[in-house]
Fold each of these.
Amino acid sequence: MLLQEPLETFTICEANWNDFNDILNLLNAVDNEFVPSLTESENLRVKITRILNDRQRGWIKAVDADMVVGGVAVIYNYRRPQLGLIETLAVLPEFRRQGIGIRLVQFAMSKLFQNGMDASLITTWETNKAALAMYEKLGFKTIMRSKVDGSYFKLFFMRSFEEPPRSQTRFSRFWNRR
Ligand SMILES: CC(C)(COP(=O)(O)OP(=O)(O)OC[C@H]1O[C@@H](n2cnc3c(N)ncnc32)[C@H](O)[C@@H]1OP(=O)(O)O)[C@@H](O)C(=O)NCCC(=O)NCCS
């Protein structure tokens, strides 16, 4: 009987300009899995550059044997001070269901917390069963559901880093004011 969990072979850390092409390959590989596709809203090179250039944003990567197999972006002070956003979470299809996605989000949450954020926001489309299950496991609570372009529902989740967590009403008021 196996008494210990298998050792992880991947590492999670912050990415930098040296990782530009690897992140581009990753995003190209998963582009059409996003709803809407990533390229529908922005050129991928522009997106990666925008995040690498901004002190309020950053990429995090998962590396397995020198290969970038997953990534996620964080935004500090997103729309209000001390609110973090976790976005563009992706793991290469052949590396899924090994705990890489969840470790990426956990790492992102710890970066946000270490940098003074008091809560994190994360979103996905309503039919994304994998992301929904993962966010629930990580303690994110649904705070809003909104229809985008009359075509699909986007769900917003929040995870507070403080006790007691901020109320939905307060967040919704803030969000609706934008
Ligand atoms: C979502 C995604 C990042 C998950 O990455 P992953 O490395 O496979 O996820 P993990 O192995 O860490 O899974 C963590 C948990 O998430 C849930 N989960 C992951 N994939 C799932 C799936 N296909 N179906 C149902 N639940 C799933 C499970 O609860 C899982 O825990 P378990 O394996 O112990 O059951 C990956 O499927 C992906 O890149 N999808 C395309 C892009 C995307 O949807 N991004 C997120 C929206 S922004």
Amino acid sequence: METEKVAAGAQFVDAMASAELASGAQRAVNVNGRSILLCRVGGEVHALANLCPHAHQPLEGGAIEGGAIRCPRHGACFDLASGASLNGVTRTAVRTFAVRERAGRIEVDAPRANVGYFPDFSQDA
Ligand code: FES
């Protein structure tokens, strides 16, 4: 039986259909007014703030290499599971969120408004 590790107080909200995120793909979604980047690697989905902590630019479009994503702006590399910085471009981790798949949908633990600077890029052209 599969078990889930979910933080107390987690509030999962619908983000998108599982079938729309193929292995190796990424998609920025608007969750509670915040831009979240969903990435699927090896069948597992990761959810990160679509915000690079280096110069506050979107991570969307960055190359996914193994279990990491490389920011398309200046090359900072982050672990998809933990958000940890993996090279010297920045020491700051990118925020990650609990994510799960249920009944063909991807659900993300909704970001709260009081968690610091976290702009919404989802409406940008
Ligand atoms: S904004 Fe991401 S590496 Fe600079």
